[in-house]
């Protein structure tokens, strides 16, 4: 017999996640500094080289991350508290995973839907899965919103956004 799910279980402690994020930013800051040195991170006779400012931004990120890492290990008993519960993480992932897919659908090397088609699918998916709306309402809202946005950005403001196959059918590129 399967045990009931406990959605109040912790997904890591405060200390674990503080340290993990600090290490991730340490790596990021190190990469920025390393690549800035490749570009030239000193002061030349005509002013700063291309990597001068990025190097110091990377250094600030690195030092702040070191401080956060030290702080993570000095948290004491507070560090053992749960960072997030399974149920809360599930809610975050309910938004994050579709958002990543949405961004990937807008413009990618394999097949690009463009911002309007991807947005209509994104709105429709959230209305159906999260809001439990009926299909007529979903179609009306998702297509209506994207039609208004298309008119606003492409026609009225003349702001070119990534286009997909439907816009190509109507001669918009």
What do you see in this structure?
With 173 residues, this protein is mainly alpha-helical. The protein has two domains: 14-80; 86-169, no CATH class. 65% of the residues lie in helices and 2% in strands. It has six helices and two strands, in the order H-E-E-H-H-H-H-H. It has helices spanning 14-39, 52-73, 86-106, 114-129, 135-156, 165-169; strands at residues 43-44, 47-48. Strands 1-2 form a two-stranded antiparallel sheet. A hairpin with a 2-residue loop joins strand 1 (43-44) and strand 2. Helix 1 runs antiparallel to helix 2 (52-73), helix 3 packs antiparallel against helix 4 and helix 4 packs antiparallel against helix 5. The longest helix has 26 residues, at 14-39. The radius of gyration is 24 Å and the shape is flat. The termini are far apart.
Low-confidence stretches: none
Largest sheet: 2 strands, antiparallel
Shape: flat
Instruction: Name the average pLDDT.
Output: 91
- Total count of domains: 2
Please state how the strands of the largest beta sheet are arranged side by side. 1-2
* Fraction in helix: 55-70%
Q: What is the string of SSEs from the N terminus onward? A: HEEHHHHH
Structure annotation, total helices: 6
Given helix and strand content, the structural type is mainly alpha
Question: Which band does the percent of strand residues land in?
Answer: under 5%
Q: What value does the Rg take, in angstroms? A: 24 Å
Would you report the number of β strands?
2
Termini separation (Å)? Answer: 58 Å
């Amino acid at each position: 017999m399967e045990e009931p799910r406990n959605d109040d279980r912790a997904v890591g402690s405060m200390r674990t996640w503080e340290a993990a994020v600090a290490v991730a930013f340490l790596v990021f800051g190190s990469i920025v500094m390393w690549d800035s040195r490749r570009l030239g991170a000193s002061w030349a006779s005509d002013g700063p080289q291309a990597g001068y400012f990025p190097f110091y931004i990377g250094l600030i990120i690195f030092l702040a991350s070191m401080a956060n890492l030290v702080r993570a290990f000095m948290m004491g008993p507070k560090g053992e508290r749960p960072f997030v519960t399974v149920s809360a993480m599930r809610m975050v992932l309910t938004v994050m995973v579709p958002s990543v897919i949405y961004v990937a659908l807008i413009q990618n090397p394999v097949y690009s839907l463009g911002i309007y088609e991807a947005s209509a699918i994104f709105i429709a998916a959230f209305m159906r899965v999260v809001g439990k709306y009926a299909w007529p309402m979903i179609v009306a809202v998702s297509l209506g919103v994207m039609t208004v946005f298309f008119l606003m950005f492409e026609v009225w403001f003349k702001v070119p956004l990534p286009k997909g196959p439907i816009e190509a059918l109507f001669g918009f590129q």
